[in-house]
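INFO batch 0412 | record 1 of 1 | parsing
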Amino acid sequence: MARKNNAAVGYIVGTLCVIAAAVSAVMFKNSGGVPFKADKKSVKQADIDKADTYVEFIDVGQGDCTLVCSQGKFMLIDTGERDSDDKVVDLLKEKGVERLEYMMLTHPHSDHMGEAADIAQNFEIGSIIMPIVPEDITPTSQVYEKLLDAVEEYDIPFEAASDSEYTLGECEIATYAPHEDYTGLNNYSMLIKLRHGENSFLITGDCEKEEEKEYLQRRIDISADVLKAAHHGSSTSSTSEWLAEVLPQFTVISCGADNKYGHPDDETYSRICKYSPKVYVTAEDGSVIFYSDGNGLTVKTEKG
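INFO prediction complete | emitting tokens
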């Protein structure tokens, strides 16, 4: 089960407070003590029979992997770590995937692109989109080299991540790349915003506080109904300023059970709960699927 936000009606002190509460927006508090406003977007339940679009945050342990499907077209965002079980490859085959229109890799850390070469060997790919990073921090890992080999061997179009727009079925996709220089790979994460009708998703890679600040200063529209929390819910990311702009109805934290990093960080988790009424953790809930009919969202988790 997902960790619960223990919502409770705030204490009302005195008659004036009662009157004020009656004429103002109703406010709820979770365990973090920060109110959720009643005018926050209400997400209706999707009609799954009409929902030909879904976004699945796949439980790949300590890593990230998101599958997007719209009108029978597929896109993969990150692939998780390389493993001997070929979990992502097998899952895509089970879903009948033969072609990925895009494989977007938020940044070249192996827990986000470790399975990319194997996926390239098993599926037709329209294009691979990934940030270009400075030479002095370019990975020399085996999985990164294998991906470059696969791109060459299968002649897969490669695009450097940039501020661009794409479409996938009925979905509109906007990508953003950092304009500043950073010292670590995490802050070169590509930001991906997905919109399907009235529903929106924000996927953040391992974007840290410095990169979050840059996007905020650039005044990019990062508001979203569903947030994939950055860097597995670590202490490096998800500032209050960032969360206040996203103001997600749902948040997914992708991390492995009992991981050595302590993800999600307790303080970060509590902070996310202040701004997001519902938070899922893949280590507890398994894969999390959001079905969209363009108006509402229905959420299902692997572990119920």
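INFO post-check: The chain has nine helices and 20 strands.
INFO record closed
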